[in-house]
């Protein structure tokens, strides 16, 4: 409970006086006032933007062979990710193309990426969906160092992927290029946009950052802390997951069927069995911890560092990876930064302290560029759990009237809310 109170106090600090591009609660109309609930349940189905169904979208998945050396160095059971896959939705004729970068640990077909694809495809865009540089498939098949977190390096890896997509889809008729990303993908998009200013492969017309971390270290620390929330009913004999599953089981028994999607989660939170704030906080933190474990395990294995998997340990298709993943779960994101990211940064770039690293990988590093670039905008939520004290102030100073601040929505919970969708399309249409 103490952690929850500290987080509530933190959220109070970041809600600063209204800006011209801010919306009031009543004007906005998004119904979920609890940021944890919004983060988990998203937007009620009847309040979402109207978008085409998958059957109405001309789309297919493709593969890129970017790191052929990994095909020999990675274990056999990594065969599905030795080439990088992406998804392309194409219009019938010439159209603008939208690149979407997924959030932390997310695959190119993740739910939020899919939702954004439907929105932009319905508005007449070709759409390319990309995995996050922190996803195990991107780390395996596209990343040079397989140690994500150095934002400039992640941007170079993404840029190479985008160029490879363009080359592979050379017959696609593209009138102009746009870029967006959500959560960590938004931070990636900012660094990719700056890189494109010198390389000029795409000359992005507009770039939209959705719920980006400002200080990357603050954001991951906030999410890591959620796992430490004290939850009633959890002791040496009952785990957090058992408590949640027991509630979900009782809920499904009452409904008579199982349908695990955002609409169900919203309905579930309106029932008497709804999760408490502490339980929701731990659920969000647990999802992030699993993403961190993926990063920690994959980076260690590809680079043969021996921190999680012994360097000479034989791994083949019959090897159980569960013991190594459990070991990776014991190492949080701060552990990853200390044991893998900083040593790599110092070895490759003669890096210095943690403070210097945070400055280089966060939006701070791009402050002058972001302030002076009218094509880049931000949409964020005042109650987003990844923000720290002073972050919204930074966004206001840097983006001015290119910042749209919503009063509610948690972390990306309102991305498919019809008001947000309308604002996204208006921005890209100019």
TrEMBL record:
Entry GO MF terms: protein serine/threonine kinase activity
User: Sorted alphabetically, which keywords does the UniProt record give?
Assistant: Kinase, Serine/threonine-protein kinase, Signal, Transferase
User: Record's InterPro entries?
Assistant: AB_hydrolase_fold, MlaA
> Signal: present as a keyword of the record?
yes
The signal peptide, as residue positions, is 1-20
Coiled-coil features, chain-numbered ranges:
none
* PANTHER family for this protein: AB HYDROLASE-1 DOMAIN-CONTAINING PROTEIN (PTHR30035:SF1), LIPOPROTEIN VACJ-RELATED (PTHR30035)
Put simply, this protein is called Serine/threonine protein kinase
